[in-house]
Amino acid sequence: MGSTVIMPSMVFPGDIRDFDAIKTQNVPIADVVFAHVWLGDESIDEKRWKPYLNDFASFMLRFKPKTVFVTHLYENGRPDDRMWRIEHAKEVEKHIKLLNDSVNVVIPDWGSSYKL
What we know:
Order of helices and strands: EEHHEHE
Number of helices: 3
Helix content: 10-25%
Distance between the termini: 24 Å
Structural class: alpha/beta
Strand content: 5-15%
């Protein structure tokens, strides 16, 4: 008799830039969310991207995930002033944990693998 493998449910909302767009819609519940970072158009100027943190984190938590992978970092072809980097990901992680400290936040590293 074989064992049953239960796969986690996952959602990749993609490049969301309007965090209010689906507030009135039902969103799927997912074990894992791939949080594609977008915090405005200026990554260098903290006072321009910091106001987006709460909306971004709240949006990703609407899926009621157990794990959030913070993605979309160091995108090839973007100039430095529009690139999301590890310092942004760490701010996202802190804000998600502030809103729900039971969520596991992962900032993937190149070449690493992750088991859920």
